[in-house]
Amino acid sequence: MNFFKQAIVKTVLIHILFWIGVWFFYIYFFSYNSNDRNYIIWFSTLTLPVTMGLTYFMVYYLIPKYLLTKKYWKFALHSFYSIVISSNIIVPLIFGSFIFISDYKLSHMPAMSKNIVFVLIMVYLIVGLVSFVNLLNYNFKTLSRNKELQTKILETQLQLKEQELHYLKMQIHPHFLFNTLNTIYGFALKQSEHTPEIILKLSNLLDYILYQINKPKVPLKEEVLHIKEYIELEKIRFQDTLKVIFSTNEIDENIEVAPMLLIPFIENAFKHGNQIEGYLRIEVKVEVANNKMAFEVRNTIIPQKGSNENGGIGLENIKKRLDLHYKNNYSLTNLKKDNWYSINLTIFNLNNLKDA
User: Fold this and answer.
1) Do 179 and 74 fall into the same domain?
2) Helix/strand/coil for 71
3) Which of 179, 227, 188, 187 is nearest to 205 (CA)?
4) For residue range 160-187, what is the model confidence (pLDDT) as tens digits?
5) CATH label of the domain that carries residue 168
6) Fewer CB within 10 A of the terminal residue: the chain, N end or C end?
């Protein structure tokens, strides 16, 4: 409340100082070629209220009600009425000053004060100047509000993207862990010697999933390394019924991608692939050249009518993540042919990774 009162007092003081300045300006202007200080002071004092009334009427009524609401014809019409009314006040003011202040002595009147055109110009000059400053201030405040609103909108969009990305990541965790824990459970029941090895590899993957995935980006080389670990886990599970071909060229350690970007494709290949002639065959290829990545995963399938191989939550999530991180910067295609399902991902500019 004190702040509000201080703001009001400050505004009032600014207005008072401004009109005192206008009053001195009138005295200076009307005193041109005249030494009658008494007449000049009285005439300037009488002219000031007319200027103030017209100014406040323009700034606080006509401009907000008509000009800012784009009712230009009404603004022009009411402005014309204001000019006519103010002229009908100023003209009697000049004659009244001639009668009561100069005592019917035209020669005692300052030249500028008896010229109706000049007096009107001075009054409307002040009105126009204040109106112009008011419009500039309004535009500045509008731009500031719009900029603040745009900033809030961008912040809200960023928060929504972060929440969506976090939700997508959280969906990846249970899906991956469910499959791997089932594998460990099966080997534990058999008291297999591979159980400790599986747990160790799972521990490495969990470290990647739980800690690295919270980073905005990770080295592509690290992502490929964990793909290999994932495949090694699946080799233990499938034993002699799995054949995997994995190929990749040399990857620069400085090349980075969104974490857990490629592993869901591998996971889907194992989940939706089918054994043909006793083997599940999976082929993985990762090639990076000229800041462009080509990634392909192929797995054998037994086509069935009405089925949707390699679909599910995992692939839908990865599409959404690609849109968040690489919008308009990637190509994702899939193909079913000759008992093979293949999916191809191409990221054209790896440097253009958006932090969603």
Assistant:
1) no
2) coil
3) 227
4) 666 555 555 555 555 556 766 777 777 7
5) 3.30.565.10
6) N
